[in-house]
Amino acid sequence: MARKQSDYLAALLSDDDLPLQDDAAAPVETAAEEGVPPSPLPEPKARVERTRGTTLLGRESALARVASGEVRQVTQLLLDPGRVRIWPGNARSYVHLSEESCQELIDSIIAEGGQKVPAVVRRVEGDPDHDYEVIAGTRRHWSISWLRAHSYPDMQFVAQVAQLDDEAAFRLADLENRARKDVSDLERARNYAQALRDHYGNHMTRMAERLKLSKGWLSKMLKVAAIPDAVLSAFASPADVQLKPAYPLAQLLDDRDKSAAVRKEATRLTREQANRRADGRPSIPATDVLKALLAAPDAERAKPEPMSVISRHGRPMASVQSSNRQGVTLRLHAGSGASREEVLTAVRNLLIELDGEGRGLQT
């Protein structure tokens, strides 16, 4: 996180007056506290005395500003990343980080001889395996951990320690993640939905005010967060789900008459994506997935024929005659040319499709 962004985050959270812990590490000194560099040539006594006096006055002034609260010293620690866990309230998915996604940061750390921008952590209690948890700086933690495991065992995780409650920690992490393109809209949306329950008592207005967000925009994020996993699995990756195009899909799923068709199409697309991965073929692009899901209700209404499975000989071998609360009626067609195993597979696939539409057998 750049210094300007760090200052911005600190300013937005300044109303909480969040103190930094004073841990046993060397504080970062200001320029006013640094001594005057020695000159290679002897200087007149009077000049030396004036320099000494200026230095002492500078130190006294800096100490006075710290004591008054005008300036706050920040303690930075050099930590073993293995003793630092990731706070689960952060939107970023740690398990989805990789060498590829962190390559630029890894290269920067190597070039600079270590991590230059500190992460923000807080102390944890009652965990024998960890001393701190990361509030802001998940990618830095992952990168340092990766470097320690790949030829840089002495790399240290640089962090500053803050005293934060969960709500303040969430706001700080959210402010950092807003500037990160690799945090998807879906990750943030689900993070907001969880925070709404955990920190704001399901009061969206209060949450919007605390995060300094538009209430309408937050409402759209929460709507996207409600898209079920069974529909999201139609996309090749959760990162493909972006707010603007996904919002109409979330609205469509609120319509009970149309959601069944969307879920059915999502089941079909999920199988197709899996088949493509298995065959080494490219995944279906997110735009095509979204287009198919949005068009599913109209496409379903345009289908006059019953749900059926065609054999390799071009003849139906199994079809759905009806599906209601009393049960499912299937027809197994004679003369399809299919083997018993093929027919059983067809029956199984039909039941899976019915489940995807919400019309399957209730257990």
Present the secondary structure layout.
Elements: H1 3-12, H2 45-68, E1 76-79, E2 84-86, H3 103-112, E3 119-123, E4 132-136, H4 138-149, E5 157-161, H5 166-177, H6 185-199, H7 204-211, H8 215-225, H9 229-232, H10 243-252, H11 256-279, H12 286-301, E6 308-310, E7 316-324, E8 327-332, H13 340-357
Parallel strand pairs: 2-4, 3-5
Antiparallel strand pairs: 1-5, 3-4, 6-7, 7-8
Helix pairs in contact: 3-4, 5-6, 6-8, 8-10, 11-12, 11-13
The level of helicity is: 40-55%
Question: Shape from CA axes?
Answer: elongated
Which class best fits the helix and strand makeup?
alpha/beta
| Topology as a string of helices (H) and strands (E) | HHEEHEEHEHHHHHHHHEEEH
Ranges where pLDDT stays below 50 over 5 or more residues in a row are 17-41
Q: Report the total helices.
A: 13
How many individual β-strands? 8
Average pLDDT reading = 80
Strand content: 5-15%
What characterizes the major β-sheet?
Answer: 5 strands, mixed
Q: Kindly report the oligomeric state of this protein.
A: single chain
Distance between the termini: 51 Å
Strand order of the largest sheet: 1-5-3-4-2
Instruction: Indicate the radius of gyration in whole angstroms.
Output: 30 Å
Structure description:
With 363 residues, the protein is of the alpha/beta class. Among the domains are: 229-301, no CATH class; 308-357. Helices cover 48% and strands 11% of the residues. It is built from 13 helices and 8 strands. The chain has helices at 3-12, 45-68, 103-112, 138-149, 166-177, 185-199, 204-211, 215-225, 229-232, 243-252, 256-279, 286-301, 340-357, and strands at 76-79, 84-86, 119-123, 132-136, 157-161, 308-310, 316-324, 327-332. The strands form 2 sheets. Strands 1-5-3-4-2 form a 5-stranded mixed beta sheet. Strand 6 and strand 7 form a beta hairpin. Helix 8 (215-225) crosses helix 10 (243-252). It starts with a helix and ends in a 6-residue tail after the last helix. The relative contact order is 0.08. Mean pLDDT is 80; it is low at 17-41.
